[in-house]
Amino acid sequence: MKASQRERSARAWQASPLAELPGEVRDALLASSVVVGVPAGQSIGEAYAGPTFALVHSGHVRVQLVTADGRTATIRYAGEGQILGLPSAIAGTTPWTAYAVTDCELTMMSGALLRELASADAAIAWHLAGQLAQISFEVIDVLGGNIFEPVLQRVCRHLLELAERTDEGLVVATDQHELAQSIGSVREVIARALRTLREQGLIERTPAGLRLVDPARLHEMAAGHGEPTKG
Predict the structure, then answer these.
(1) Contact at 8 Å (CB) between 171 and 206?
(2) Using alpha carbons only, how large is the chain's radius of gyration in Å?
(3) Are the beta carbons of 104 and 37 closer than 8 angstroms?
(4) CATH architecture label of 149-222
(5) Same topology for domains 5-146 and 149-222, yes or no?
(6) What is the arrangement of strands in the sheet containing 203-206, beginning at the earlier edge strand?
(7) CA atoms of 105 and 36, how far apart (whole Å)
(8) What mean pLDDT comes out for the span 194-209?
(9) Alpha carbon distance 181, 49 (integer Å)
(10) How confident is the model over 2-57, as pLDDT tens digits?
(11) Model pLDDT for residues 47-72, shown as the tens digit of each residue
């Protein structure tokens, strides 16, 4: 039997950092929540258009800056069991937008209600402050990597971020254009980096996407520990 929307929301909550909050907070936020499916390629909320606050059940979401001429820069990823839009919920607005990299399912919650609950209980506010700090660290790490890391290292890191577990192993279903958008490069550069990784046997192309053949080595390279072994 397919799980109800409420059950799926409860599971997503339990898998998220919000699980540490009291049960009455969970019940209040989920009571007015809505479960939505978002297809790959669709935006989730808009910059400066009001808060978006959600739990990610499945899929990958990319949070990004968007310039007036359409250029984008990735600042964070959110996957299964993660919170999307907590800064937006606290501030009541956001200068960023989110984008479904793969098909996603989300529980959309009320940022206004979260602010009301946090205003009435210092313990809730303190927990949320800790989560905001963690999200800030993630944003700084992604931005720093996109500024300072070599392209091949950035590609390895983003492949690991975007990989989903399947029967074939860890698979990245996105294309070269999406990877280029993620790391702020161009498709031709990404194609060369992927070719290098394929030639070294670290990834392979399958009908489902790019399979990560050697995730441990990709982790090493994403951390800046060396280049692919020369064949």
Answers:
(1) yes
(2) 19
(3) yes
(4) Orthogonal Bundle (1.10)
(5) no
(6) 164-166, 169-172, 209-212, 203-206
(7) 6
(8) 92
(9) 23
(10) 568 888 999 999 999 999 999 999 999 999 899 999 998 888 988 777 788 999 99
(11) 777 788 999 998 888 888 777 676 67
* Residue appearing with tokens 């956001």: 94
CB 102 within 8 A of CB 171: no
User: What are the residue boundaries of the structural domains of the chain, listed by start?
Assistant: 5-146, 149-222
Give this prediction's pTM. Answer: 0.73
CA atoms of 122 and 124, how far apart (whole Å)? 5
* Coil, helix or strand at residue 168: coil
Residue type, 180: A
CA 143 to chain centre: 14
Structural fold of domain 5-146: Jelly Rolls (2.60.120)
Q: Give dist(CA 39, CA 103) in Å, integer.
A: 4
The pLDDT tens digits for 115-128 are 999 999 999 999 99
